[in-house]
Design brief:
By secondary structure, the chain is an all-alpha fold. The protein is built from 15 helices and two strands. It has helices spanning 7-13, 18-34, 40-60, 72-75, 80-84, 104-116, 139-143, 146-155, 186-189, 192-200, 210-223, 231-238, 245-259, 287-293, 339-343; strands spanning 277-280, 283-286. β1 and β2 form a beta hairpin. It binds a DNA duplex (10 and 10 nucleotides) through α13. Keywords: DNA-binding, Nucleus, Transcription, Transcription regulation.
DNA sequence: AGACGTATCT
DNA sequence: CAGATACGTC
C-alpha cells in the first residue's frame, strides 16, 4: 500500500498505461500462480500490485466501483489457489471476503468457492461450473465454516422435503453434536407400516448439497479419479453417515456422465487431444492436472481450462500417497469404448504440455 | 450376497 | 436435470 500511488509511475516507466499495467500484471500473476508454492511472495507482491493499480484506476476514473480491488491474497496464501481459477479476462474477479481457513477441511472448501466464482461456464459443465455450488451466492453463508453449511442451507435456501433434514445430506458429524443418525435411517426403527410405506414410496431424494459434493470430490480425488473410485470407497472416504452406496453410486454415475468430456462443441483445430492420463503413484490422474500442479501432493484438477473436479487443494488428509491403491484393480475401462473415451475424463486441457511425469514411487 | 455399472424411471 | 431404482454381471 505504501507504494500504491507509485504504481502510476512505475507503470509509465515501463511504458504502460495504468490499466495496461494492471492487465499485464494479471497475466503475470496467472503465471506465477503456477508456482505459487515456490513463489508465494512473488505472487503476493504481484497481487498487491494489481490491487494497487486497480485501486488507482478506479480512483482516477472517478466513480466506478473499486470493487475489484481488494487484498485477496493478503489474507491467506492458501487462498491463492482458489483464486486461480476464477480469474477471468473479463476482469471480474470477484474476490471473496477473507476468511479464516484453518482446518484442513476448510481448505477443501476452496474448491467450492473457486467454482463459485466461475459462473460463466456453460451449464453443461457440470462440475467445472459452479452449478453445484452456486446455490448460495450469499457471502455470509459462504463465510461460515463450511462444515456446517449443509445444515444451513437446509434451513435457508430450500427445504424441499417435508420431514427430516434430508437435504442437508448427512450432517457430517465430527462436530460436537451427535453423529446424526443418518437422515433417513429413522425408518429403520419405526413400525412396519412405515417400512412398508418406505418401500412403496420412493426413497427420499438425497440432495447433494455442495458440501456433500465437495466431500464426494475429495474422496474421488483421493481415490484417483472417478473412473477408478468405487461407490463404496467413496462413501467410506466421505464419512457421511446416512449416505448409502446406492446414493453414491448414482451420484457417481451422474458425475461420470457429465465429466465424460461434454465437449462436443470443439472439434476444430482443437485436435482430438489424446486422452492423457498419468499414472501417478498408481493412480490415474488426468495428465493436465498433474502437469499443472507440479506438486506431487496435490492433484488438483480444475485448472483454468476447467477440468471436472475442483481440486481439493493442497491438504488432502492423505497427500495422495501412492498407498491409496485400489484393492481391486479391476479393468477400469469397460472395454466397449476406446480407452480414449474413458480416459478423457473430460477436459479440453489447455495446451498444457502434458508433462508426462510418470512418477512411479514404487521403483 | 454384495459391489458395480448401466439403463431406465420419476 | 438429478436422484432412485431395476437389472445384469462379476
Amino acid at each position: 500500500m505504501v507504494y500504491s500511488y507509485k504504481m502510476q509511475e512505475i507503470a509509465s516507466t515501463m511504458g504502460f498505461t495504468l490499466s495496461d499495467f494492471a492487465d499485464t500484471l494479471e497475466q503475470e500473476r496467472t503465471k506465477v500462480l503456477m508456482f505459487q508454492r515456490e513463489l508465494p511472495l512473488c505472487l503476493q507482491i504481484v497481487s498487491h500490485a494489481i490491487d494497487c493499480c486497480r485501486q488507482q484506476l478506479s480512483e482516477t476514473t472517478t466513480e466506478n466501483r473499486q470493487s475489484e480491488c481488494s487484498d485477496q491474497t493478503s489474507s491467506d496464501m492458501g487462498l491463492v489457489l482458489e483464486e486461480f481459477i476464477p480469474i477471468t479476462r473479463n476482469g471480474v474477479f470477484d474476490s471473496e471476503q477473507p476468511r479464516h481457513l484453518h482446518e484442513a477441511q476448510t481448505e477443501n472448501n476452496k474448491v467450492n468457492d473457486s467454482d463459485l466464482n466461475n459462473l460463466n461456464l456453460p451449464p453443461s459443465d457440470w462440475l467445472r461450473s459452479a452449478q453445484l455450488w452456486n446455490q448460495t451466492s450469499d457471502p455470509s453463508t459462504l463465510s461460515q465454516n463450511t462444515r456446517v453449511v449443509e445444515v444451513n442451507r437446509n434451513g435457508g435456501a430450500f427445504q424441499p422435503f417435508q420431514k427430516e433434514k434430508t437435504c442437508g445430506g448427512g450432517g457430517m458429524m465430527s462436530s460436537s453434536s451427535d453423529p446424526v443418525p443418518a437422515a433417513e435411517t429413522g425408518l429403520g426403527g419405526s413400525s412396519r407400516r412405515e417400512e412398508k410405506e418406505a418401500q412403496n414410496q420412493r426413497k427420499q431424494r438425497r440432495c447433494w448439497s455442495p458440501e456433500l459434493h465437495r466431500r464426494f470430490l475429495h474422496a474421488l480425488q483421493q481415490l484417483g479419479g472417478s473412473h477408478v473410485a468405487t461407490p463404496k470407497q467413496i462413501r467410506e472416504l466421505m464419512k457421511v453417515d446416512g449416505l448409502t452406496n446406492g446414493e453414491v453410486k448414482s451420484h457417481l454415475q451422474k458425475y461420470r456422465l457429465h465429466t465424460k468430456c461434454p465437449t462436443p462443441t470443439i472439434h476444430n483445430n482443437e485436435t482430438v487431444q489424446p486422452p492423457q492420463f498419468l499414472v501417478v503413484g498408481g493412480i490415474w490422474v488426468p495428465a493436465s492436472d498433474y502437469a499443472t500442479t507440479s506438486s506431487r501432493e496435490t492433484v488438483s484438477a480444475a485448472t483454468a481450462n476447467g477440468i471436472y473436479a475442483p481440486a481439493v487443494a493442497t491438504a488432502a488428509p492423505q497427500p495422495l500417497p501412492s498407498t491409496v491403491q485400489k484393492p481391486k484393480p479391476r479393468p477400469m475401462i469397460p472395454s466397449s469404448s476406446s480407452a480414449a473415451a474413458a480416459a478423457a475424463e473430460c477436459n479440453s486441457s489447455t495446451t498444457s504440455s502434458s508433462t508426462r511425469t510418470s512418477v512411479s514411487p514404487a521403483s
